Structures are given as structure tokens and as C-alpha cells.
């Protein structure tokens, strides 16, 4: 499939790079990279709507903010090469290394995950994936039953298994991400991770110890009743994919579903929130 690449020139960069990333992710953009003070955003050509992009950005272009971008089409045979060129290893403290087959592996890390970089959300570069990985390594996953909603590249599911989770079920609605996740499960000898190529409604089990969801605020809000139905009493819910400024709204929505908020972690305005089922 062909992809559209938008390259953004944003001033000031903070917090506007994060804001633009969130806005684009809500209209179908799958992956983002930052380099040389520029933001690259990628979306499947069939899902690209130029007027929609211009409309949401015009709302934020003002005297004190400048947001400009260029567009190009990446043919199917070239898009993965383009992605690989800007893919760097991800280090989460000194504990976790997320790397590609063409990287050298530093032996100092306790956990390592090899992924074939493609345009799937969740490579670890984004602040939310980094934050979730860090928090997961602080938690007890041993013998836990885990659900990873919107798994993307499968990084968080792979990490859950490396942290000795008894089992891990994942969901993903994007066909390309499903293919990539399965490949990454195999690369890391985690073929037993079960992937459901549908949304949360298709998950039948209702006894998960831990649910992880790194999506966006609107989807998370809509999903909360489904999470509540599928998690054990006193189970842990980890939510991310939104800004710290959205936290209060999500806490109120989660409370209606009997989730009690007790932890928030922030990195560059992005947040991870932790809840327990009451």
C-alpha cells in the first residue's frame, strides 16, 4: 500500500509538536518520527484527507504559532526503507532496549525487544509507549493474564511476556499492524501471544489481571465500559495516548465505570494513568 508522508515545520516546537501529533493520530495517522527539529507523520494513502488536515491545523495557526508542512507520496516498495532510515534504537532507562534487525545490541539491558520497523504506532519512540514500558517494568506481571488493546507493533505485549505474564491477548483493527505484530511476536519467540484482529468488543474473556490501552482519549473513553467488563476486581488498568491536560476528564469517565485512579506519570506533556477496579 502507498503512504502519505507529511513533514511539519512547527514553531515553537513545544508543546505544539505533541499537539499536532495528537490531532493527526485522531484522524488516522499511524506513525510519527522527529528529527532535525521536524515532525514526520505517516498515513495510508487511502485514509488521507487533505482538507481534514488543513481544517484542524488552521484552528491552531495563529500569530504566536507557525505550523507548515510539505507532502509526498511514498510508494509501497519504498515506504519501509523510508521508515528504517529514521528509526533509532529506543532505550528505556538502562532496563529496556527496543531495536531493529540492523542495529547492534548492547548487552547491558535486562530486556531487549527486536522489531521490524514499519509504520505502526508503538515503536517506543513515542512518549506514551516509553512511559508505559517504564511503568510496566516497575509492576508485578508474574503469572498475570494481560490484555493489550490496540497493540500496534506488539511491543507492550512482548514486554508483558518478558515480565513473566502467564498469558497475553492483544487486539488490533489495522491489518498492516496485525501483520507487523505477528512478525514481531515471532522475532521475539512470543508466538503464543494471541492476536484478535478486531476491536475490544470481540474479546470474550472477563478475567484479566492487567489491561493496557495506548490509543487516544476519545477511543479510551468509549472503551472504558468494555474494560470494566473484562478486568478482575482489583485488576490494574493502564491508559495512555493523551495529554496530561486530558487526565481529569478521563478520571471522571473511569470513575463512572468503577475504576479508581491512583497514579499518573508524565513525559513531555503526555500522560500514563493507572487505575484499579473497585
Give your account of this protein's structure.
The chain is 31% helix and 33% strand. The strands form 3 sheets. The chain has a 7-stranded mixed sheet, with helices on both faces. Strands 2-3-1-4 form a 4-stranded antiparallel sheet. It has 2 domains: 3-85, Alpha-Beta Plaits; 126-277, Vaccinia Virus protein VP39 (Rossmann fold, 3-Layer(aba) Sandwich). The chain is globular and about 50 Å long. By secondary structure, the protein is an alpha/beta fold. The protein has helices spanning 16-25, 50-58, 76-85, 127-138, 155-162, 175-187, 217-230, 247-256, and strands at residues 3-11, 31-35, 38-44, 66-74, 90-92, 96-99, 111-114, 145-149, 167-171, 194-196, 208-214, 231-243, 259-267, 270-277. It contains 8 helices and 14 strands. Strand 13 and strand 14 form a beta hairpin.
What keywords describe this structure?
about 280 residues, alpha/beta, Alpha-Beta Plaits, Rossmann fold, 2 domains, seven-stranded mixed sheet, four-stranded antiparallel sheet, 8 helices, 14 strands, about 30% helix
Q: SSE order, as H and E? A: EHEEHEHEEEHEHEHEEHEHEE
The fraction of residues assigned to DSSP E strands is 25-35%
Number of helices in the DSSP assignment: 8
Please give the radius of gyration in angstroms.
18 Å
Task: Kindly report the CATH topology of the largest domain.
Answer: Rossmann fold
First CA to last CA: what distance? 45 Å
User: CATH superfamily of the largest domain, called what?
Assistant: Vaccinia Virus protein VP39
Characterize the largest beta sheet: strand count, sense, and whether it forms a barrel. Answer: 7 strands, mixed
The strand count comes to 14
| Strand order across the largest sheet | 10-9-8-11-12-14-13
CATH architecture of the largest domain: 3-Layer(aba) Sandwich
Class per helix and strand makeup: alpha/beta
Poorly predicted residue ranges:
none
* Helix coverage percent: 25-40%
- Look at the structure and give the mean pLDDT: 88
* Shape label: globular
How many discrete domains?
A: 2
